[in-house]
């Protein structure tokens, strides 16, 4: 009797398992987007950032006009020759306890010494290998910490801007260190 009951249970379970299967209507998918995802083209148009007014593009990602990033102090001089001349009259914004010449030296050696030389004499490795010519020595130049900051921020001639590599505070540290180098070259 037990064997008949076991056989009937097995046949019943098999029947229940196979009776719900239908090849024309597969099982229910709990997360259909995972199985049949929409293929987006890289850098293609998407409705993800469209504004409620119907404007297309990255309208909702643009910061509001007149806003300033937290912790950022805007530099008020534009990239013009007149502003460069005006920057020579300005000094550092760092207080005496904020000036860190060791940090300035470290940053100068990373970003500037390859062209300007570790002593600021205009004889860096790229100048010695004649990759760049005409890199000035700091002792021959009438520079101030304000004008150095302006040049590091915007670049001049063959020198590009370092504003993306150095924060505003780091650029002032480099400017202070360059003034120290200038005083040692005389």
From TrEMBL:
Listed PROSITE patterns: CYTC, PROKAR_LIPOPROTEIN
UniProt keyword annotations, A-Z: Heme, Iron, Metal-binding
Coiled-coil region(s): none
Keyword Metal-binding belongs to the record: yes
Keyword Metal-binding appears in the UniProt entry: yes
Gene3D superfamilies linked to this entry: Cytochrome c-like domain
Pfam families the UniProt entry points to: Cytochrome_CBB3
InterPro entries: Cyt_c-like_dom, Cyt_c-like_dom_sf
Domain Cytochrome c, first and last residues per copy: 99-182
Record's protein name: Cytochrome c
Species in which this protein is naturally found: Flavobacterium difficile
